[in-house]
């Protein structure tokens, strides 16, 4: 079953232009297309239920590339989902409570998350929830697949590849990080948290 690129109505964000979003949506659609193409090639190799020695290097490379394309697709979906035109910080109540238990205060969490987002290099800043204890922690993901924490749930996802900010902010990534915080859909973030048991 092929994946389909989703649509996101995000026009009018603060500090993230519609032109940047249009470019970003096209890049995202490319990850969806790449995921589908690689999955089809892998399925073709596996159609007889085996992989012979001659096919193994090509098969291995396809599966490696699939991690990049698939994670690029999913991380973009999570990123677009956690953006909103009218961000209401008051709606972050549940997330605030969880952040305070994990970091001591929202300000400490935000400083840490922004610091990760402002690191050199391309990648993602992601606040994860540890499913075993509910603790939140911030992490850097290089590219799309290196640094994902196995089993942890992504709660807040910020793209910090150049295409997310270069058009609007040039090399001033910190300005983009501020714009990101002005557009967080806190209701979505709260909905990603696991319910207490």
Q: Measured on Cα atoms, how large is the radius of gyration?
A: 18 Å
Query: Main sheet: which strands, in order across?
Result: 2-1-3
Order of helices and strands: HHHHEEEHHH
Question: Can you identify the CATH class?
Answer: Alpha Beta
**Name of the CATH homologous superfamily:** Iron/manganese superoxide dismutase, C-terminal domain
- Distinct helical segment count: 7
Beta percentage is: 5-15%
**What number of domains?**
1
The percent range for helix content is 40-55%
Shape: globular
Count of strand segments: 3
Largest sheet: number of strands, sense, barrel closure: 3 strands, antiparallel
Intertermini distance: 35 Å
Low-confidence stretches: none
Can you put this structure into words, describing what you see?
- This protein has a single domain (15-197), classed as Iron/manganese superoxide dismutase, C-terminal domain (minor pseudopilin epsh fold), CATH 3.55.40.
- It has helices at residues 18-46, 56-81, 93-103, 106-117, 166-169, 173-182, 186-192; strands spanning 123-129, 136-142, 153-159.
- The protein is built from seven helices and three strands, in the order ααααβββααα.
- The two termini are 35 Å apart.
- With 197 residues, the protein is mainly α.
- The mean pLDDT is 93.
- It has a three-stranded antiparallel β-sheet, with helices on both faces.
- Helix 1 (18-46) runs antiparallel to helix 2 (56-81).
